[in-house]
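for the recovery benchmark. tokens below, seq after
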């Protein structure tokens, strides 16, 4: 059957993306237009599609404008006309700067959220650029911004790519309202009020939103909220310690059950950040995931090549959101929240069934996971304790005694999925938190469930490689990272090796993730990491250089030099040379790295490490051309608020 005649490619099954799509529905206008930096994939893992389907469910007309051209006469921004209610703007599933640039500030050559993986289809600071363009074309139409870029830039934040402290994205973009975090609940409230005729300008007391008001305007009233005023944006620009203190308050309030409303003076205006909604329950989660998605990229892309991000997740299932790990370098809790929101087993099984009916499905569910694969349905045993808690992590520096780490509900889903007709394999490829099933404080029956989890996971749900993220080997660095001691990894690897042999699977591999140049990490720590991982038999592949991203503890340390919780100075590697030296230690097994590593070890006085890593004493290790600096492309100079080139084929 030709794709053009196949009903699965009927454009009526997607939200409109063109004037022709609107005309086919008999629409001369829509209520909401969503502008996104990603290609349009109608799937629950793509935020703009979820938001669009919710607006549709609420009985409103919605269209999507994906990856509009911002460098020509702006015709893309005009083709759908003026929405009746508002424009919704998102940079996409990633912060646009993380999407476009490497940790070394080099422009990436690909984009996983674009057909064919092509780069150049979204601008730097996409949420800001799109909003400014829309304001210039339709100054009287309200703009609502959301998604991870807006969420993580909702207050004064450090921007690594411009090396500057930027104000709330509301100030730079000119948008009227910001939704932070996962947007379903605030969006439903916004739509409910707009349908009642409430003016958009009056939407100032909705939970999980932020707005900029004139400084002398009266604050919106909500008798249930207590206010807390942060240091002003201007104070943050002149005093890094005040900026660092702000972050502690922001992170704390973002992860509290009963959070305070945050206020921050920004020039002549006042930023108001309302407290978040309560964590979504199973019914609310199911309502989002059970929307009528086609689970496919829009037909307009069929000649442009596959969309890499979609190809990765098209046969996978996301079972929950949120993460209570609180890792210093991670933005998940800042965006999705500390408390885990889980779907019902029935909703998960419905999605698995839908995947088995996809034309290209070959019998494998590629992932039964989430932000951390094994946090499904985990929460506090006594909710009243959680209600008063202000810890940023439920498992660091130790697993909370009030945390239910029962893995048995997850095992039940695993069994049901692998017994479903059409399912040959059901793998877990999201990263695991092994400290959740290795800690000693769990009751006996829970510990027995932990042991069964490891056995069933390894026996049935590892495709060949199991991902875990110890991140470092130095306990001092891990303390800054808010990660468990490396001793847990030794314990986990030992058990993994035992179980895989027990089930006759000797070829299964453990794939650990590590980070270099994280705040607190020095070259000597990386040398220690190289030695320890070599002794464990690893040649590391899954590694990355630390990239400062807004709204993480590690970024605030990197930007200010002090820990926001302790106020103590923390060592950071800022220069290209320091970062490269740390990264080199990952690749001790590559011949071209031997000279560089030998030179570093000699400088550090680590003679014993040189012998363990390179097999020779430093005096015997020839520091030849391998240790010289290799030529590379000149790094692009980044300037704030510059729109870089856009191209299409």
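predicted aa per position
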């Amino acid at each position: 059957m030709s794709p053009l005649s196949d009903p699965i490619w009927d454009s009526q099954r997607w939200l409109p993306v063109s004037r022709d799509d609107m005309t086919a529905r008999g629409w001369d206008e829509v209520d909401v237009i969503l502008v996104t930096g990603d290609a349009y994939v109608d799937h629950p893992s793509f935020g703009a599609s979820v938001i669009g389907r919710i607006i549709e469910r609420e009985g409103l007309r919605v269209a999507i404008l994906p990856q509009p051209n911002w460098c020509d006469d702006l015709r893309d921004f005009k083709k759908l006309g003026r929405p009746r209610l508002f424009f919704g703007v998102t940079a996409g599933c990633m912060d646009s700067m993380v999407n476009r640039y490497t940790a070394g500030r080099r422009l990436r050559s690909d984009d996983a959220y674009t057909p064919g993986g092509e780069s150049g289809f979204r601008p730097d600071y996409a949420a800001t650029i799109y909003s400014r363009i829309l304001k210039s074309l339709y100054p009287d139409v309200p703009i609502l911004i959301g998604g991870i870029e807006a969420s993580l830039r909702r207050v004064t934040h450090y921007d690594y790519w411009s090396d500057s402290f930027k104000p709330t994205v509301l100030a730079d973009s000119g948008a009227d309202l910001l939704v932070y975090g996962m947007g379903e609940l605030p969006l439903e409230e916004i739509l409910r009020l707009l349908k009642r005729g409430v003016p958009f300008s009056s939407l100032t007391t909705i939970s999980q939103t932020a707005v900029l008001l004139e400084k002398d305007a009266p604050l919106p009233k909500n008798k249930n909220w207590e206010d807390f005023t942060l240091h002003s944006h201007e104070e943050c620009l002149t005093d890094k310690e005040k900026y660092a203190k702000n972050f502690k308050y922001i992170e704390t309030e973002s992860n509290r059950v009963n959070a305070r409303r945050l206020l921050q003076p920004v020039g002549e205006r006042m930023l108001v950040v309302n407290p978040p909604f309560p964590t979504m329950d199973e019914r609310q989660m199911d309502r989002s995931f059970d929307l009528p998605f086609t689970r496919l990229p829009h037909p307009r892309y069929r000649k442009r090549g596959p969309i890499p991000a979609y190809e990765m997740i098209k046969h996978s299932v996301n079972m929950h959101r949120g993460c209570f790990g609180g890792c210093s370098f991670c933005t998940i809790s800042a965006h999705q929240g500390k408390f885990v929101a889980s779907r019902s087993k029935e909703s998960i099984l419905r999605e698995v069934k839908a995947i088995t009916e996809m034309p290209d499905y070959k019998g494998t569910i590629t992932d039964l996971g989430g932000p951390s694969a094994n946090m499904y349905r985990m929460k506090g045993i006594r909710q009243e304790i959680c209600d008063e808690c202000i810890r940023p992590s439920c498992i660091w520096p130790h697993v909370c005694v009030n945390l239910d780490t029962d893995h048995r509900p997850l095992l039940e889903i695993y069994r049901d999925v692998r017994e479903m007709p059409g399912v040959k394999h059901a793998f877990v490829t999201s990263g695991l938190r092994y400290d959740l099933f290795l800690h000693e404080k769990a009751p006996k029956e829970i510990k027995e469930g932990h042991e069964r989890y490891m056995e069933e996971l390894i026996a049935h749900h590892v495709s060949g490689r199991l991902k875990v993220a110890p991140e470092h080997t130095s306990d001092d660095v891990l303390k800054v990272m808010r990660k468990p001691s490396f001793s847990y990894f030794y314990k986990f690897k030992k058990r993994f090796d035992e179980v895989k042999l027990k089930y006759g699977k000797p070829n299964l591999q453990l794939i650990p993730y590590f980070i270099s140049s994280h705040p607190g990490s020095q070259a000597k720590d990386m040398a220690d990491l190289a030695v320890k991982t070599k002794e464990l038999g690893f040649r590391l592949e899954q590694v990355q250089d630390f990239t400062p991203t807004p709204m993480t503890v590690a970024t605030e340390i990197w930007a200010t030099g002090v820990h926001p919780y302790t106020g103590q100075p923390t060592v950071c590697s800022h220069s290209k040379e320091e970062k490269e030296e740390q990264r080199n230690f990952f690749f001790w097994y590559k011949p071209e790295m031997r000279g560089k590593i030998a030179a570093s070890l000699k400088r550090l006085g680590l003679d014993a490490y040189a012998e363990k890593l390179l097999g020779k004493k430093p005096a015997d290790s020839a520091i030849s051309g391998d240790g010289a600096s290799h030529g590379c492309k000149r790094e692009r100079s980044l300037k704030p608020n510059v729109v870089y080139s856009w191209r299409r084929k």
